Amino acid sequence: MDHKFIKYEQKRLTEVESLNKGKEFYELMNKRRSIRFFSEEKFDIKLLEYAVKTAGTSPSGANKQPWRFVVVESPEIKKEIRIAAEKEEKESYEKRMPQSWLNDLAPLGTDWHKEFLETAPYLIVVFKIDFLQTDAGLKKHYYVNESVGIATGILLTALHNIGLSTLTHTPSPMNFLQKILNRPANEKPYLLIPVGYHAVDAVVPDIKRKKSEEILTVV
Q: Which residues of 193-209 are buried (b: 16+ CB within 10 A; e: fewer)?
């Protein structure tokens, strides 16, 4: 083989250890909720650096790692993002969304007002990179949406694991993020994630997750 390979090593756990770890991790992640009420309290940005590094361990098509994570802490930029996001959201809620969609959103108590985009101490904007421009020409990336989706899931998991709250926000369209953050043409906004500690009076909708038999099939 012309390409270099290295030996893979991973500690082998006993079945009991694996079951215990699986149960503990599920119980941790089952407490994760999307939060819309954030504390303004700042924290060490290294926490976000570790979370992003963890997201960067995600698998990707042909190992192209087609993602960029932009952390926003500037109050001015956060305000600019909020104004642009609310403009799109207002248009969506009032003109774009069919009534069935609005009905489905009603139990969540959401509307086009997005105060959390300024309240949260940090925003993480996830960009997907469809290709790279090199001296030799364009280099295509593969399975970009799938790769970035997996990395984003790992990012959310890592943030919850270190005690931070998040929200997955998808204003549509959100090309304004590319412009505000001065990202190159090959980087397209994928997801906007406010990050911080939850406010002391934060509330979440009283909703239930599907049971395992509703999402798991063994054949």
A: bbbbbbbeeeeeeeeee
Structural domain of residue 98, as residue ranges?
35-200
For 148-197, write each residue's pLDDT tens digit: 999 999 999 999 999 999 999 998 899 999 999 999 999 999 999 999 99
Number of domains the chain contains: 1
**Angle, alpha carbons 192-209-164 (nearest 5°):** 40
The answer to whether 4 and 83 have CB atoms below 8 angstroms apart is no
- pTM score, whole prediction: 0.95
pLDDT at 1: 66
**Three-class secondary structure assignment of 47-98:** HHHHHHHHHCCCCCECCCCCEEEEEECCHHHHHHHHHHHHHHHHHHHHHHCC
The CATH number of the domain holding residue 166 is 3.40.109.10
